[in-house]
Amino acid sequence: MSEEHHLHDHEHGSVHAPPQPDDKVHSYYQILGIALKELLIEKGVVSADDVRRQIERRDSITPANGARVVAKAWTDPAFRKRLLDDANGAVSELGFEMTTAKLVAIENTAGEHNVVVCTLCSCYPRDLLGLPPSWYKSRAYRARVVREPRAVLAEFGTHVPEHVVVRVHDSTADMRFLVVPERPEGTQGLGEAELAALVTRDSMIGVARASAPNR
Amino acid sequence: MTRLAPGTPIRVREDFPPGHIRTPVYLRGKTGEVIKFFGNFDNAETAAYGLPGLKKGVYKVRFRAIDLWSDYAGPAIDAIEADLYEHWLERLT
Known about the structure:
The complex is a heterodimer of chains A (215) and B (93).
Chain A: H1 3-6, H2 28-42, H3 48-60, H4 63-75, H5 77-85, H6 87-93, E1 102-107, E2 112-117, H7 126-129, H8 134-137, H9 139-144, H10 149-155, E3 165-170, E4 175-180, H11 192-196, H12 201-205
Parallel strand pairs in A: 1-4, 2-3
Chain B: E1 9-12, E2 31-42, H1 44-47, E3 55-64, H2 65-68, E4 79-85, E5 89-91
Antiparallel strand pairs in B: 1-2, 1-5, 2-3, 3-4
C-alpha cells in the first residue's frame, strides 16, 4: 500500500476512487518524446513492437545480475582481478553485455568506501543493474553526495568511520561504475548463490554495505 | 596533447561555454590529480548534437573534498573523482 494512501485517517471499509495515474498531465518533454516515437513508427524507422521489445528488455534487467558478478568476485580471485582490470570482459563471461558504456568495477575495502553518483544526469550501469532507483536521479542526492557524502551515507544507515576514505565517483563521461561491496563477515561457508542474495542494489551503488548473512 | 601520467597535478579550466558540457560546474577552476587514463572517447560536447567530433582522451581525476568545499565537514582524506575530457585539463607542473 502506498504511503500516500495511508497518510489520512479513514475507516478501512470506506470506498476509495482507485488511483488514476493516466490522468496526469504530460510535460513538454514527455509530449516531445511521444511525438518522436509516433513519427519514427509512422515513417517505418522502427515498429511499435521494436519499442515495446526494448522496454521489455530494459525492464527485465535487474540488480540480481550485478549480484551474481559480485558474488563471483568474492569467491574467485582470478575473476575478481579480471573484473577490476576489464569489467566489460569479466561480466561477459557471465553472459552480461555492456552495450554502450565502459563498465568500471571499484572495490570497497576496510580502508576505502566508494559511492557512485551522476551529478549531471542519471548515468548508471543500466545494462547490468537495470533502471536506477528514483532517489539516484533526484536533485537532492546528486547535489548532496558530492558536497556532504558522509551525511548522505548516514541517512542511508551507512556510518563510515573517520579513518576510512570516502570516495565519490561522479559519472561524467562514458564510464559506468559498479561498486563491489566488502564481503560480509561470517560468510565463509556460503556458495555463490547464497552470497549473491546478500548483494543488494544499494550496496552496488555504494550507499549501503552488503547484507549480513541470516537476516 | 601529451598524455598526462598518473599523479600529474592539474587544474580544470575555469570556462563556461554554452552547450552540452560534461565537466560539472563545481569542478571548474579546481585543482586535482590525474589517477588514470581511460582511453579516447567520442567528445560528448559534439556527439550530443550528432556532430562527428574528434575522439578525446578521458582521464579519471581525483579532487580532495576539502579543495572543493572550504567548509567540508569530513576528514581531509575524502575525495571526489570525475571522468574529464583532456581539453578541460591544464597541467600544473
